[in-house]
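Q: Got a minute? One more chain.
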Amino acid sequence: MTGKNSPSLLKSLLRKIFSSRQKESLSVGLPANQRIYCVGDIHGRLDLLQELQQKINHDASAYEGSKTLVYLGDYIDRGMHSKQVVDNLLEDNFPDFKKVFLLGNHEQILLQFLLSKDVSIAHDWFRFGGLSTLVSYGINVSGVPTSKDLERLRNELTDKLPASHVSFFQHLELNYEIGGYYFVHAGIRPKVKLQRQRPEDLLWIREEFLTSNLFHGKIIVHGHSVTEEPEILHNRIALDTGAYASGRLTCAVFEGVSCSIL
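A: Always. Here it is, folded:
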């Protein structure tokens, strides 16, 4: 177990939260006979993903309830095996799990590069890791691409992206909600109802969400903002431990009102 708070402390926090909000009829934890495994940002680290998947399978082998596997987005960029990570996620490695794949801001910008009339968005994408994704799909990149290279690179990526990968990117979910938890890539805008959140905030928000002490109606489980260790707080749980650079890919396990870290 790692993280800032232990499962017992999380239970204590949850009791305090919900005892003060009884009139609001908020859900606490997960429904009975449910367990959720939630994986943070992978960023092209196939080796860490495979290692973590083995741990999840081992941990879940004796559990007889309903099992769900949630991935928080940012499967691509930075690490050198983005294509191979997507190949892995498309395999049926967990046939007895429900699987939820959330959209990350890195997948969003890849789709914008593919589908937008303005290819200049690639300059932003390349600054935070997009070139490694191109290389993983077999595209030859020498040096930093200039504006005149962008149309060619988009055409090559369009040609080399398997149809199954395009479909995967296009059908990623913005959020997943169950019991007292709301799973999302980056976070939510405080003081805005969960049903009225803007996609841009769900995918990109940082400081306003991270510094808020407000309870948002549900505990927000998110990635996107890197921390050295997973953070378990009264209003949010952060699971992006910078796998591409740190070598630590984090998975949280939710059952009842407990949260532990693989």
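A: Residues 17-25 have pLDDT under 50 and may be disordered.
Q: Perfect, thanks.
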